[in-house]
Amino acid sequence: MRKIREVLRLKFEVGLSARQVAVSLQVGRASVGEYLNRFAASG
Fold it and tell me: Whole domain around residue 27: which residue ranges?
């Protein structure tokens, strides 16, 4: 849960790209994309 929150914070508050978020958190780019897709689908 903490990683998901951090992904969203870095993407929307800090303004990093998905690739930059993935590098920063040491997770895969696909994982970041999946988190963002799920967030968008949730409304």
Answer: 2-42
